[in-house]
Amino acid sequence: MSETVQLKAVPMLLPDKRQVAASFSRAADSYDGVAELQREVGAQLLADLPDWLQPRRWLDLGCGTGYFTRALAERYAQGEGLALDIAEGMLRHARAQGVRAHFLGGDAEALPLRDESLDLLFSSLALQWCGDFPQVLSEVRRVLRPGGTMAFSSLCVGTLQELRDSWQAVDGFVHVNRFRHFEEYRRACAASGLHMHQLQRRAHTLYFAELRSLTRSLKDLGAHNLNPGRPGGLTGRARIRALHAAYESFRCPEGLPATYQVVYGVLHKPCQA
Q1: What does the buried/exposed string (b/e) look like for 88-122 if buried means 16 or more CB atoms within 10 Å of the residue's CB?
Q2: Which residue among 46, 51, 121, 138 is least crowded, i.e. fewest CB within 10 A of its CB?
Q3: Helix 88-95 and helix 17-26: axis angle, to 10°?
Q4: Tens-place pLDDT, residues 94-127
């Protein structure tokens, strides 16, 4: 189901990659302790992979702490595994886990890999930080062998909408990370030269006893507000109280909801050009 919105042809305003890398590097030690959503989404993406896949060489793109690198290494024990991330702190943490894979530093928009060198590229909740998603897909098409598969999850507009709406009631600053519209993912995939086996959006909702728990989890994940236009300095007590009051309007029996709109895609490179 596509979103019925008019999309303007303007550049995607995303955080500077150096800030993203630094933020996730700082979060390496705390990440797995609060990564409930990340584990849920990655597990779903693994389940979406075709049963017949037996890659000789695979890549975990945006591997983070290596949680799903380990799962891929166990599932495809006969293949050679690679894991890549832009955050050196995450790579240090992942290497220390003893996962059977080669760990590389690099950028999804300029993969440090040879042409047609992979059978599977897996990427869970990393590509939302890339400013040029069509360029990512171009790189994927370059490094996949004919018949190869890309499986990815990412975030789209509507993610953390409760937090966004609550801040909107307080001030006009950017407090929540921006994400692409689902339709932008669809258009990019359709134009990529890859065959779309699956592209869909699913909502995942987490619940928190209090707002402080949500904001702390975002910080521990390294996924707190990094966008251009975010306010500088400390947030005043009056605005924090106003934010708490606004967010309370979303409370339900399970607690305070934080909804993530997750894009799931499985693409195949044609066997013949």
Answers
A1: ebbbebbeeeebebebeebbbbebebeeebbbbbb
A2: 51
A3: 40
A4: 888 888 899 999 999 999 999 999 999 999 999 9
What tokens were used for 68? 């799903």
> Within a domain: residue 244?
no
CATH code of the domain containing 25: 3.40.50.150
Burial of 24 (C-beta count, 10 Å sphere; 0-12/13-18/19+):
buried
Enclosing domain of residue 147:
17-159+177-206+260-268
Q: Considering the domain boundaries, does residue 172 fall inside one?
A: no
Which helix (H) or strand (E) segment holds residue 37: the answer is helix 36-48
CB neighbour list of residue 208: distance below 8 Å, 6 or more residues apart: 214, 217, 255, 256, 258
Q: What is the pTM of this model?
A: 0.85
What's the structural domain count of the chain? 1
Q: Does 9 fall in a domain?
A: no
Q: How does pLDDT run across 123-175, given as a tens digit for each residue?
A: 999 999 899 999 999 999 999 999 999 999 999 999 999 999 998 888 766 67
Residue 209: Cβ within 10 Å count: 11
Report the alpha-carbon distance of residue 137 to residue 267 in Å, rounded: 10
Give the integer Cα–Cα distance in Å for 103 and 100: 9
- CA 101 vs CA 12, 50, 95: distances in Å: 33, 22, 9
Taking a C-beta distance cutoff of 8 angstroms, is the pair 206, 36 a contact?
yes
The reply to whether 212 falls in a domain is: no
* Residues sharing a CB contact under 8 Å with residue 257, sequence separation 6 or more, in sequence order: 162, 205, 206, 207, 250
Residue 140 has φ and ψ, to the nearest 5°, of -60, -45
